[in-house]
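step 4 of 6: structure.
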Amino acid sequence: MGLEQALAQVDADIDAAVERLLELLRIPSISTDPAYKDDCDRAADWLVDDLTSLGFQASKRTTPGHPMVMGHAKGDGPHVMFYGHYDVQPVDPLSLWDTPPFEPALEDTPKGRVIRGRGASDDKGQLMTFVEACRAWKAVHGALPVKVSVFFEGEEESGSPSLVPFMKQNREELRADVALICDTGLFGEETPAIVTRLRGLLGEEVTITGPNKDLHSGMYGGIARNPIRVLAGIIASLHDASGRITVPGFYDGVAELPTDIAGQWGDLGFSEAEFLGEVGLGVPAGEDGRTGLEMIWSRPTCEVNGITGGYQGDGFKTVLPSVASAKISFRLVPGQDPHKLRESFRAYVQSQLPGDCTVSFQEHGASPAAEMSTDHPAFEKARAALSDEWPREAAFVGCGGSIPIAGYFKDILGMDAMLIGFGKDDDQIHSPNEKYDLSSFHKGIRSWVRVLDALSR
Amino acid sequence: MGLEQALAQVDADIDAAVERLLELLRIPSISTDPAYKDDCDRAADWLVDDLTSLGFQASKRTTPGHPMVMGHAKGDGPHVMFYGHYDVQPVDPLSLWDTPPFEPALEDTPKGRVIRGRGASDDKGQLMTFVEACRAWKAVHGALPVKVSVFFEGEEESGSPSLVPFMKQNREELRADVALICDTGLFGEETPAIVTRLRGLLGEEVTITGPNKDLHSGMYGGIARNPIRVLAGIIASLHDASGRITVPGFYDGVAELPTDIAGQWGDLGFSEAEFLGEVGLGVPAGEDGRTGLEMIWSRPTCEVNGITGGYQGDGFKTVLPSVASAKISFRLVPGQDPHKLRESFRAYVQSQLPGDCTVSFQEHGASPAAEMSTDHPAFEKARAALSDEWPREAAFVGCGGSIPIAGYFKDILGMDAMLIGFGKDDDQIHSPNEKYDLSSFHKGIRSWVRVLDALSR
């Protein structure tokens, strides 16, 4: 009865909920670029105001980086701590956006209505599904069915430098019975998912310096060390012919997937052809002998996220550059220690350097992989609640992305975390033309209404 | 007698000559960047005006690209055709310039007085040594000692797309007894040089496309093809462990250096340690078993002049990019056909492509190497004249750079070309803080006065 009323309230209020989300999406809270510092601050203020209007005791907490937002609502029953992030990815290349990234709008597409704009899916849209679910409960019942706290970060897209210190300094305030995280996706169009396995992330920037200035490639070409060639050689050497990563010790501690999980994943009917076809590809490019789901959920990787060196403008310049650099990241799986691997990686790069060049490193975040134990009763309650809202049964799945917060809740606070999200594979997060399906937003809000209700029982 | 007067006139007029050069250097005639099209035009006009003031019949000739400047002076005796270029290299990275690149000035350095600014050496300063030599002859004698024509190009730093068509369309006007080219350097501080061997150049831009848009490296990392990794692999594969280039057929037609030339070069006392030490290096990075002079003068090379892909801003972005590209150039030696090698290179890259990616190519110039025959009597006359001006005997040397015009004079017009220049290794051409020694400029002008005199005898 209480549930049905709250669901009806969600449906009745959906247009206003979209308007609120569009307001938040208009704030260009790009955390990795210092130019948007004030905008990150503005997004945090917006959330504090909105939470306050819902009766939360809400506040903005300063950090050395972008602020955190904390909110606590009174309530009975179990205590849940909801996490989301209000910062977004950069938007370049801007030229590939069909509409301005921070002028979000509803748009009709052949696949349905979408909310278009940077952060629509990752993570402002997802974050707001939970806030709107709270609003609906509050509107109908004047209170929430369980005790709810929220914790919003503003540095998720830039390595979360302030997160661990903040969590350690605010242990008591952050502790609850279970954490809820909304930063993942559905498994397919109709199947909701609870992520129980996340990859970690190690980010490194590698800069190779050869000559002490840019040289003329006619005068020096052939005798002088070219840092682009050195960098290319190192990158090429990071994988062997079978697709395995060559950094010594990289696979130490990496276990094979347990057969029961492998079996569950096999039952999901994942289509490599369909998954890759969406982005114009067709051939799984990972390690030989691994399934597509292993490649993205349970195997570690090494990717180059950016490379730069020499002349990059129009035309041609016969320069032999002084410097070349690359941003390289590793996705990690349970058993891998990011700090140890950073050292192994750096030692490996040093070992590959030819004469007449030097290397320097800049670190960009390190977080271990996370594996949830699904023993906590909340997992089965949430799975049943999600299954009631969506056409198909909810599944326990893996996620190739890195959501370090899940591991931190466990390691720092001893809390289990349930990762429930409503994104779709074609949301183009981190890419131009990011969107969030209106159905993801609407059914996402309804899903949280159901999950909160289920947890109260 | 006539010679001494002209030399004295050079000395008397040197301050005014510097002022004229500074005026030309203030025009930012960067040919590779369309934004500077009008400036290239302005530089051509400046030269036409200056030549006209010297009594040349001078004109600006339009081409599909930047204009050519032609000038003819009346005179007796042999007919020389002088070539230089008025366009300059781009200036990035601008932040590394100590003074604005197009606000040239005289500057006192521990090694003497220099003219600082983009183009000071390459090639405006060098070009003006010849113009000023003509001015001095004219001032003293009212006429030049030989028949002089000049031919200035504005696309040398951007692949000279209009040069060959222009030379073919103006064969008669361009034909003379010998060509003079001032775009090379001294051999050491005190030894003038006539270059008799130049490398050719083949420029290619290689673009690899993987997924049809930028992807999230968490979601797709491990299963999707990464074009930066593909590009790095191709670049790394272009050389084998001994430093040889792996493109099939690349060394076809490349001959070993004749023993007499190898002997002359050996006598030059070239110090690899000194040459590389100037730019912070110490280990010759070319093919195993080759001398430093071979690496820069007589062996072909492959260099990467620029590379770009993915996120390159501050911070980190876990993107798996759709596209990566590199600007790659080959320095060629006699016996190599640039057009054939372009095809071999493209076929090689295609053969190295893994699944799920495509490559596209953009061409950036192709010119063969050139080897001068020193049989023409002008070579010995010029060598003697240069030896009179400088502390040491002039040498016949090679040059690692590509000055295609020398080959074109031979191939299109059947003319020998003498490459005489006064640049120094530390002029930082194509780099920030380019300069031309005042002594190069001053003694360069005097050198041309002597060469013109010698050729008249």
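step 5 of 6: annotate
 - The CA atoms of residues 370 and 407 of chain A lie 5 Å apart.
 - Chain A touches chain B through 97 residues (CB under 8 Å).
step 6 of 6: archive
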